[in-house]
Amino acid sequence: MEKYQNIPVKYIKQIAKNLKIKTSKKESQEIIQEIIKSNCQKHLDHLNGQFRYKGNNLTICKPSNSFPEKSGTAERFMKSLIKEKHVVNGQIGTEWQPSLKPQIQICSVEQDGSDVYIKLVEEKKSSRKQGYSNIISTYAHYTAIVLHFADQVIELRCAYSDRKKYADYIMKIMGFGQPYDWTPLTVVTKEEAKEICDILSAGLSSTHIAIPSTVGSLVFNGKKGINLRDDRAFVAIKNAIEGIGLSTDDTLDETCFYIYKDDPTGVEIEVSFEVNLKNGGFKFKTDVPEKVVEQVIEAFIYVCYIQKQKALSQAALASSE
Q1: Which residues span the domain enclosing 295?
Q2: Is residue 3 part of a domain?
């Protein structure tokens, strides 16, 4: 396995730049060796772990039923994985390369408190032209899943169209009975999306608005670093559209941004994510470290689940008085 393969090359170069290591015309492995010689291997180890379970698409699933007895806690679930021979004890906390198959296989798993991180791999095929022929090649396709036992939710880091496939796989392992029913918590209203952005101190960089006319829709993209929510020009344009009798309230999707600084390494990461308000899709525009995903997940769970549960409890209490 190539050393530090999980880290996007641009962040390896950022570490090198911070150490005043030249990166021009150098391969990533050569840069890595110079970082190690500078006694900063710990930075590489840290980021490699942060990007091990990366995935740009994200869905938080709330199963219709409570987690089964054998998967009631992170500890019990980990024991069941070993007992049922999905993994062996020595593989916990590591990453390995099983022989590729079309079937889904676990290639990394680790527990962090009440959360369990799982990396899956399966064989995929691609076709390319060579001369007059098509050459079929295979490659490893990775998908990450995180089980949050404290909140009893399943986090799928896969494409929107693949959600059922991976939800079925993990819910079967966990011991759920068929049918595997769940509700996506990543379906949010425009107001909830704004509340999530407020928690993250994220600005609005792009918005796609449906227009009830022959135009159909309009996409507004702010210049780099501009928050459209506070931008006078954007507000003026919306007011002008509404001034001719057209509504701008039907938002299809929004793209938000903020800067995350990784303390151990000093690497600055431009986080950009898109919230699809129509189908509940959510995706990061680029690979981000685990700490960023945790921040976003916590904001989603708070706004879309915990806050709603509190409101329901308060309403029930008020009605009983």
Answers
A1: 190-318
A2: no
